[in-house]
Amino acid sequence: MLKAMLIKEFLLVLRDRHALAALFVMPAIFILIMSLALKDVFGTDRALMTYVVTDNSSSALSAKLISNLQESSLLKQGDSLAQFRVDIPDGFASSFQTNGSLKKLEVVVEPDVKQEMLALFKVELSMALMGLRLDKLQSDIGDFSNALDSFDLDPESMVSVRFANLKESEHPTSTQQSVPSWIVFALFFVIIPISTIFINERKQNTLMRMEAMNISTPLLFMGKMIPYLIINQLQVWVMIAVGVFVVPLFGADALTMGDSLPALFVLSSALSFAAISLAMLIATVVQSVEQATTIGGIINILLGAIGGVMVPKFIMPEFMQTLSNISPMSWGLEGFLDIFLRQKGVEAILYESSALALFGVVMLSLAMLFYRYRRVA
Amino acid sequence: MIKIDSLVKRYGEKVAIDDLSLHVKKGTIFGLLGVNGAGKTTLVSILNGLSGYDSGRVEVAGLDLRENIEQIRSKSAFIPQSLAFYEQLSVLENLNFFAGIQNIQSSKIEDQINRAVETSSLESLLYQSAKTLSGGQKRRLNIAIGLLNDPEILYFDEPTVGIDPASRNEILETILSFKKSNKTVVYTTHYMPEIEKICDEVAIIDRGRVVSQGSLEQMLECKDKETVFDLFDTPLQLLHGMPLVSVIDHKTLKLNTQDTDQIESTLRELHMRGVRIKQIRLDSSTLEKVFIDLTSKEAH
C-alpha cells in the first residue's frame, strides 16, 4: 500500500515543473546571487569606507597625512559620492610644528553613514595623525630615537585575529552564510506542492475514494510525508553541491562543509519534518489551491524574514533578534550555522533539532485532528 | 445483500436520514431516486463507511456495517460523481496506484487491472495521460478504478453527469453487464430514463425517507392509467356536468381509467352534447410521473 502511495506522490511532484522550480532551481539561484552579492561584506580585504581629502595646507606634513590615510586597508579614496570629506585646514602644518594647539581637521560626513562607521573612520584618522606625531617625536629626539624605528602601528602586527571554531587561515564567507539560509528557506517551500496536491485530492474526492478503499488517516499522511522527507534531503545535497561546485565558478568562495555528516542529517531531517508537518496543517485547513499558494507563500516569507534567512540576525536590532526565536526557520538556520560555520557536531544541534521535531509533532497532530474533524463534519 | 432498518442520521438539528429502511437483493441493479438534498449521497456515504449514523441497523453482505467496515469495504467499490483520479498520471499509472493501495494480492494485481481495463474498454488508452482523455473516457477510467478489487457491490453516484449520449450509453451498457457476474449495483441518478433502462428495483427517497420501493413494473403499475380526450375549442358550459371525466380546460378532458366501457360512455356523452373530438390518447405512466406524484404528495 505504502509503496503505491510513495510512487504516486513522487510521480505527481516530478511532473509538476513549477514545484520542481520552487524546490530546486529557485533556492540554487538564490544561493548563487546572495553569495555573490554578500561576497564583499564577508571579505577581509575589502575597504569599508570611502573618503576624499581637500588639502588647504599643501605642505609636506599634509601630504604625509594623506599618504598615511592611503595606507589604511579599511579606507578607499572616493569621488564626490564619498562617505567622508576631510578638509586639512590652511596652517595645519605650522600649528603641528609649533607644539601649540593643533588646527583641527574638519570631517564632513554623509548623513546615511552609520555611527559605527564614523567611529571607525575617526580611529583610522587618529592613527594617521598619530603617525605624524611619532615622526615629529622621532625628529625631535634625534639619535635617541632608535627605539621608535621599530614602533609599528599596524594592527596586524599587534593583534592576531582568528575566527572561533575555524582553522587559523579560515574566515566565514558569504557562501557559508548563504547556503544554510537558503537551504532552510527551500525546505519550507514543500508547503506549496504538498498542499496543492492534497487540496486537489480532496476536491476531486480522491481522498474519499482512498478512504473507501480502507486507507487509514495515518497511512495517508505517511504516504504524503515520506516522499517529501526524501525530496528535502535531495534539496539539501543539491544546495550544498551548488555551494561547493557552482558558486566558486562565479568568483565567490566555495562552501566548506563541517566535519559532521550525522549532524547534518539529524538537523535536516528535523527541519524537514517541521516543514512538512506545517505544510500538512495548511493543506488540511485551507479551502482552495489559490489559498494554499497565497497563505503558504506568505507564511514562508514571514518565517524567513523573522528567522534571519533574508536579513542576517546579527544585523537585526535586539528586539528583532529576540522575535526571530519564534521562527522554526531560525532554529534550523542556527543549527546549520553551527555545522557549516562553527564546525560543530551532533551535540551542538540537538537543542535546535528537538525544537524542530516538537514543532513538527504539534503541527502534525493539529493537521490530523483538523482532517478528521473536517471529514466527520 | 444490503439491509437497512430504521436508519437515522442527523447533522446537528437537521435530519438527513429519517427512519429509513431498505432492502437491496443480491445481483440486482438498484436505483436510488431523489431530488437534491433528499439523502441519497448521505445514504451512499454511510454504506461506504465514509459517514457515521445515529441509530438503526445496516447490514451489508451479511455483515454488520459498524463492526465490519474494513471487510465490507474490501467487498465493495464506490464510484463517485467527480473524477476521483490523478490527471497528471497515465491511465495505467492510475490503475496501478489504486490497485496497489488495496489489499489485493500482488500476483493478482495484473489480472485485476486487465479485467477492469477490458470491462471499461480502455485497452488503447493505457499509456495516455488521464488529462488528455475525453469526458466519456474519463468516466470509464473512474469506473475501471472501482472494478480493481473485483467488488460484489458497486455504488455509483451519478456516473453519467456531463457526458455525451453515446458515452452515456456505453457506461449504462457496462453497468448492465455487471448483472452477468451477479454483482449488486446501487445507482443514484437524476436521469429517470437511465433508471428505467438499467434498474431492476427502485427506491424513491424524499427528505431522508423511502416513499416508495419496488420493482420498476410494480412502481409503474401502481400509478393509475389515464385516457385523455383532446377537443377542438369548446365552450366550457357545454362540458359542465360531464360524468366520469375531469375537465382540464376547454380543449382537454381526462378520464382516470383506460376501461373501454367508460371510454365508450364518455364518447356517447360528448357526441350528444355536440362536442367535436380531435384525438383520444391512452396516457401511459412513466417513472417521472410516479416520482413527481409521490414526492409532491409528500410535500403536501
Question: What is the structural class of chain A?
Answer: mainly alpha
How much helix is in the residues of chain A? 55-70%
Biggest sheet strand line-up of chain B: 6-7-8-3-9-10
Distance N to C terminus of chain A: 27 Å
How much is the average pLDDT of chain A? 85
Helices of chain B, by number, come to 11
The largest interface is: A-B, 24 and 30 residues
Query: What is the approximate shape of chain A?
Result: elongated
* Strand order across the largest sheet of chain A: 2-1-3-4
The tally of beta strands of chain B, per DSSP, is: 14
Oligomer: heterodimer
| CATH architecture tag of the largest domain in chain B | 3-Layer(aba) Sandwich
Q: What's the overall geometry of chain B?
A: elongated
Unreliable stretches of chain A, pLDDT < 50, 5 or more residues? none
Query: What about the largest sheet of chain A?
Result: 4 strands, mixed
Got a strand count of chain A? Answer: 4
User: What is the CATH H-level superfamily of the largest domain in chain B?
Assistant: P-loop containing nucleotide triphosphate hydrolases
Number of helices of chain A: 17
The low-pLDDT segments of chain B are: none
Q: Which class of the largest domain in chain B in CATH terms? A: Alpha Beta
Mean pLDDT of chain B: 88
